[in-house]
Design goal:
This protein is α/β, with parallel strands linked by helices. It has helices at residues 8-29, 34-41, 45-57, 120-137, 177-185, 194-205, 264-268, 270-281, 286-294, 298-322, 338-351, 371-382; strands spanning 32-33, 61-68, 71-78, 84-90, 94-101, 106-113, 145-152, 156-157, 162-163, 189-193, 214-219, 223-229, 232-233, 326-330, 361-364, 385-387, 390-392. The chain has a five-stranded mixed β-sheet with strand order 6-5-4-7-10.
Length: 393
């Protein structure tokens, strides 16, 4: 029987697949040594070495000497010269924009407050103007921008690209947000929920590194959750998984902005906390409440602790469903640290089904208010195809 041989085409396909595995691993981790690349991709060290050398010569990868475990090693990242990406995060009251290279190095950043119930057309115009100014500041052109990642604090209907539930972002209902921004900036835009992109950033750059199954809570004016299951973001059939703040925890409770009653967000979100403290603090913002609590204000401490208890009860229910390794708490309210996390842990311990030694860690996020923006940058990088001859969207 004649021995079967691979055709040249199949050898080429295998090599292209191996190149893609290496590039995807670097995109996911931001940078790895060649030894780490071999472990992450399952390729032999010799194959990794040859492909890294080839892609470095063609300008796709960049290598530099580093030290790992006391030994010299080649650290491999994407080449900075490949182009730029942008991360945009709309929160309910703030806009943050970051300009970065494809190696996730931020080269310019800006943020500004937003009016309550801001409108999509005004704020998307601001993004375009900010991007122009930021590109000028680094002597770059809009043509060098490969992709824009966009984070919004609302559930998204993946089929239509619009907010999935009217009233959650008043002034944005019915707007195909990614398309609207693309028309303004003339660059590809990729949109996702802010909690998902916070989870993405924490998994790669922050408190979720090395963990395959995590819950990342984004706790501020709203409350969302990003679910990382076996290393992959879980968005659900329609793209609206993780609407943790709209879990009903008190039947016939206060009216929520989504139209339902008794949602976690209506009880423990930023507006609920501010309403409770209005006679005490007046018209302060959530960040001011955190600062007052950290300075020892008893009522602010109590309000944050109560919010932590309610969030903890809902978190225990979610933990019982998906059995995470770690719960990461980010967002503006997470700046309160143990004033929030302590009551959360206590509530989870009381309600979770597993023994204490199997409980997930509950930790503060490491990326702060920039988490969703950095996640949007990573989402933009993930959305472009990097090959040995260049970049394609």
């Amino acid at each position: 029987m004649a021995t079967q041989r691979r055709t040249p085409g199949s050898q080429t396909s295998l090599r292209e697949a191996n190149r893609a595995r290496i590039v995807d691993a670097i995109k996911k981790h931001g940078g790895l040594t060649q030894v780490e690349l071999a472990g992450a991709t399952g390729l032999s060290p010799a194959t990794v070495s040859n492909i890294v050398k080839e892609l470095s010569s063609s300008g796709v990868l960049h290598t530099a000497q580093s030290i790992r475990s006391g030994r010299r090693a080649q650290h491999v990242t994407l080449a900075h010269a490949l182009g730029l990406v942008v991360g945009v995060h709309f929160s309910t009251r703030h806009l943050r924009v970051a300009l970065a290279d494809v190696a996730n190095t931020v080269v310019a950043e800006n943020h500004m407050p937003l009016a309550k119930d801001h409108r999509a057309d005004n704020e998307l115009d601001k993004v375009s103007l900010l991007l122009t100014d930021m590109l000028e500041s680094v002597d770059a052109s809009r043509d060098e921008v490969l992709a824009i990642g966009l984070a919004v604090p609302a559930p998204l209907d993946r089929a239509t690209g619009t907010i999935a539930r009217g009233g959650i972002m008043r002034g944005w209902d019915g707007v195909v947000i990614a398309d609207a921004l693309e028309r303004r900036v003339k660059r590809p835009v990729f949109i996702d929920n802010a909690a998902n992109l916070t989870a993405l950033a924490e998994s790669r750059l922050g408190a979720g590194r090395g963990k395959g199954t995590t819950i990342t809570l984004d706790v501020g004016d709203g409350i969302g959750a990003g679910l990382l299951l076996n290393g992959q973001l879980f968005r659900g059939k329609n793209g609206v998984a993780g609407e943790f703040g709209h879990t009903t925890i008190r039947e016939n409770g206060p009216l929520c902005r989504c139209g339902n009653r008794g949602c976690l967000e209506a009880i423990a979100g930023g507006p609920a906390i501010l309403d409770e403290l209005r006679d005490h603090l007046g018209s302060l913002k959530l960040g001011d409440v955190v600062l007052q609590a950290m300075a020892g204000d008893a009522r602010c401490i109590r309000a944050i602790a109560d919010a932590g208890k309610h969030i903890g009860i809902a978190t225990a229910n979610l933990c019982n469903l998906i059995d995470p390794e770690r719960v990461i708490v980010g967002g503006e309210l997470a700046r309160a640290g143990e004033l929030l996390l302590g009551p959360m842990r206590h509530a989870v311990e009381r309600s979770i089904i597993v023994n204490e030694d199997l409980m997930p860690d509950i930790v503060q996020g490491q990326l702060g208010v920039r988490a969703a923006t950095l996640g949007a940058v990573a989402h933009a990088v993930d959305s472009i195809s990097i090959t040995s001859v260049g970049v394609a969207v």
